[in-house]
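seq:
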Amino acid sequence: MSRTPIRILLWSASGVALVAWLALAWRALTGGVPADPVETAALDMAARFAHGRPPYAEAHGGVSLMPVLPLLTSWLQAFLDDGVWAPRLASLLSTLFTAAAVASIVRNETQSHTLGITAAALALTSQGLVTGTAAFARPEPLMLLLVVAGAHVVRWSPRWTSAVCAALVMAIACFTHPAALAFALAVLLHLAVHDRRRALTFGFALTALVAAGHVWSSRALGPWYNDAAWDAGLRALRFAPTALVHFTGGELLGTLGVFTLATVLSFALPVRPWRGAVGVWTWLAFAALVSGVLATQAGLPPAEAVRIAAPVAAIVGTVSAQRVTQHLSTWPGGTRLGGHAVVLTALALQFVTLLSGGLR
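struct:
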């Protein structure tokens, strides 16, 4: 199987995906997408931050919103106008930086620029083309950027100071969106399996930072903080079996089917995918699955819940696909080049499933 035509196809598709996503992002930034309750609450809270008033002075229509995105919005509004530019720009930049992080991580794990760029393009595609909107002012993109950054620090630095830095980043993520708690726990479990000394450091630092942040926020951000940041999200949870089936069957096995299959196949390898330093991405995949399921049970449409899982799936799925094909290429008659061509073909098919998911 020739790799050159597939590589050209993937680079071309990645370029088209980037342009298409930027077009959707520009439409959102210029006001072409109507505001939703989360964005309205973020803008109102940012105005309160800017004027020194308690951001949680009242409930925001039952919207669950942590303080980091509104605070960042208030900082951006010091340079921009008071419209939708600031919160949507924060989401846009967070998504772009997350895609760049995905490209860097996959490149480092696979030693392939093509796989890195393609994984990043697939992550971008999942954030825009699947739902038809991009750069909407929501906390999930910023949370995902912080989570991926924290896991990247844990992956590549064996020092105890890296565990503290990762705990700080993860703690900020927890005050961006509650789903970050699942990712922080996943990193802790990874370290407990891989490096117990750093696990103790990370666990202690994370607990201290989250507890201290919660106590300070409860006292400083107004009487409605606990309700808007935590209680509203918990009240929204309902057992919705139909949404659960649509998410697992339609999105994970359909829209993200290639990534999911590659990840599942990696569990048959002699070296278990959750072990070793690289295992942090598999642990993050577990957390992404849990977060996506909980999002659907809180009323988020399955296609929107994919936004939470897809960037991590792009990392884990691409790395897993290469590991599986490399293992198979060692069998009699197999070649490494042939295995790499299979990985490229699998990513091309993932483009097709993502785009078909957006057309449903």
